[in-house]
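Tip: read the tokens left to right.
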């Protein structure tokens, strides 16, 4: 696991008289899921997780990751070259790297306006030189760097989207008028896709297209995209109310605007490069939260019904896979890889299936203790009897995005495994059945999912729930359920879709997670509750009934009855008989 690239980076820093380089895990759109040509953090550190930052100095290097990836980073990273830190400590330690008369370098395309302005402030206070690279320093060293590939950009019609893009644009333009802005620059790929009812294939497993959008009050919006990859039917529809320009011309995006034009940016989610570009064109940048953020998160009736339907089809595939797992005549002949492939084969037969929604986590034994474990196709790990197996997976369907986790025992579980699984289940049930007043934030109810574990001094170091898009990102902002010190939080609103996924991880032994998807619903004018839309049996072989109270048992039995009612029509006679047994009342 020796990392020779860190020394190369450090030598380059010395050549350029740079003391510190900051590397983000993102691309120029500040997207969470990125294409292979943007995997600079992974190239430099060998860490493959979806979130992280690195600080590389001439004689040291540090990688900052969150609790989801603590174990994984230890497995992947050469700790003789790179020290591991918690991502929560990044901001606290940042000032230590801004030293008088030293130079800190970063690529302004890969850092938000908000983040970079903090660096500028630190630079000023500490008399540090801040160097914005024109050519990314990692790219200068990255041999055989993948090329940027563009896929087709296609229409997402109203029968899936629920609302015409022209109506959505009208709402955004009204927002500009209210905020006295001449234009708004949008670079969030999922927001552009939602706003214009388009989808793409530029990001693996997430139907996004590389694009930028400039929305003006008095002129047609301009979409910067790979023009020759835009589907003709989509181009025809869009051309009625927007202009399409080649994405290669993006540096000219503000050229036609008059000096002193007020341009809105979401400082948290827009690249500093464009803020700086607008300033150089003598325009006046101003912060305005992405006006697509909440309309996209609060799904309309068509999107919600699509999500419900997609989860039923997806649940049938998961249930077929569970039957295959639990009834396999010799499970030890299978591997993490072959199991993931089998699950894909079931999903791939579903109506409206487009792709998986993220790389499937297929993890046996100690690998299940890594919350975002990735199996190695070149080194397939066999499944094993009397061992916990965890799979976290989902699908991209034209009518919705799915995400579900099940933990099963292949054989006999230990008493302790049953206890920990049941405590995770109790937390899952407690959150799922909660009724709460309006203006409640996800951070206000996160404790419910952890309470049973915390009774015995245990917990999990990741959030409990993330937002989910509508045939979009499987991780969608701004809605989430987490501890107050983990992530910023917003009020939960009717129509938001979130995951419910408490877990427990015994390092080096096993991991447990149970995940279903919830819709926030209005119970009455004052109260909200959750509607569960994920359907697949929960492994009763891992449950210790004595730990469940009457409400827990009632929920589980009701849930399992609904699982059977919704899914049995998709199953063979043998699968249906098995499902009837595993969903029978506790």
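Filled-in amino acids:
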């Amino acid at each position: 696991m020796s990392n020779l690239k860190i020394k190369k980076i450090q030598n380059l820093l010395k050549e350029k008289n740079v003391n510190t380089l900051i590397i983000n895990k993102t691309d120029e759109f500040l997207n969470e899921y990125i294409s292979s040509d943007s995997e600079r953090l992974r190239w430099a550190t060998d860490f493959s997780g979806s979130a992280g930052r690195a600080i590389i100095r001439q004689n040291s290097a540090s990688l900052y990751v969150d609790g989801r990836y603590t174990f994984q980073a230890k497995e992947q990273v050469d700790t003789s070259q790179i020290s591991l830190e918690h991502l929560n400590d990044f901001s606290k330690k940042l000032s230590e790297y801004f030293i008088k008369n030293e130079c800190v370098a970063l690529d302004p395309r890969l850092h938000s306006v908000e983040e970079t302005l903090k660096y500028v402030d630190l630079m000023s206070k500490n008399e540090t030189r801040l160097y914005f690279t024109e050519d990314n320093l990692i790219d200068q060293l990255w041999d055989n760097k993948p090329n940027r590939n563009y896929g087709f950009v296609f229409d997402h019609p109203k029968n899936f989207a629920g609302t015409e893009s022209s109506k959505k644009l009208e709402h955004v333009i009204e927002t500009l008028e209210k905020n006295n802005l001449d234009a708004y620059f949008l670079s969030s790929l999922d927001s552009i896709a939602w706003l214009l009812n388009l989808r793409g294939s530029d990001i693996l497993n997430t139907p996004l297209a590389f694009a930028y959008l400039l929305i003006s009050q008095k002129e047609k919006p301009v979409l910067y995209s790979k023009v020759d990859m835009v589907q003709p039917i989509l181009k025809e529809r869009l051309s009625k109310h927007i202009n399409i320009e080649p994405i290669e011309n993006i540096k000219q995006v503000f050229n036609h605007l008059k000096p002193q034009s007020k341009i809105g940016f979401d400082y948290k989610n827009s690249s500093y490069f464009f803020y700086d570009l607008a300033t150089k064109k003598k325009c006046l940048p101003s912060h305005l939260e992405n006006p697509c953020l909440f309309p996209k998160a609060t799904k309309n009736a068509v999107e919600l019904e699509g999500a419900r339907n997609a989860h039923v089809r997806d649940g049938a595939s998961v249930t077929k896979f569970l039957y295959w797992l639990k009834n396999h005549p010799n499970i030890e002949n299978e591997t993490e890889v072959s199991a993931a492939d089998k699950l894909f084969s079931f999903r791939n037969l579903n109506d409206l299936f487009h792709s998986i929604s993220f790389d499937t986590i297929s993890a046996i034994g100690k690998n299940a203790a890594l919350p975002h474990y990735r199996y190695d196709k070149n080194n397939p790990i066999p499944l094993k009897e009397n061992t916990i197996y965890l799979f976290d997976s989902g699908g991209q369907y034209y009518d919705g995005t799915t995400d579900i986790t099940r933990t099963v025992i292949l054989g006999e579980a230990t008493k302790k495994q049953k206890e920990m699984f049941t405590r995770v289940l109790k937390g899952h049930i407690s959150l799922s059945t909660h009724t709460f007043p309006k203006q409640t934030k996800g951070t206000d109810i996160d404790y419910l999912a952890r309470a049973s574990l915390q009774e015995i001094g245990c917990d999990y170091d990741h959030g409990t729930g993330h937002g989910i898009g509508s045939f979009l990102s499987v991780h969608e902002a701004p809605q989430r359920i987490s501890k107050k010190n983990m992530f910023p939080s917003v009020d939960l609103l009717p129509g938001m879709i979130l995951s419910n996924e408490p877990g427990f991880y015994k390092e080096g032994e096993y991991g447990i997670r149970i995940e279903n998807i919830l819709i926030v619903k209005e119970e009455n004018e004052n109260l909200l509750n959750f509607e569960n839309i994920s359907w697949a049996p929960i492994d009763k072989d891992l449950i210790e009934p004595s730990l469940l109270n009457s409400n827990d048992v009632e929920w589980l039995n009701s849930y399992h009855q609904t699982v059977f009612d919704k899914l049995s029509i998709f199953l063979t006679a043998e699968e249906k008989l098995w499902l009837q047994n595993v969903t029978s009342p506790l």
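The chain has a mean pLDDT of 96. Residues 199 and 208 are 5 Å apart (CA to CA).
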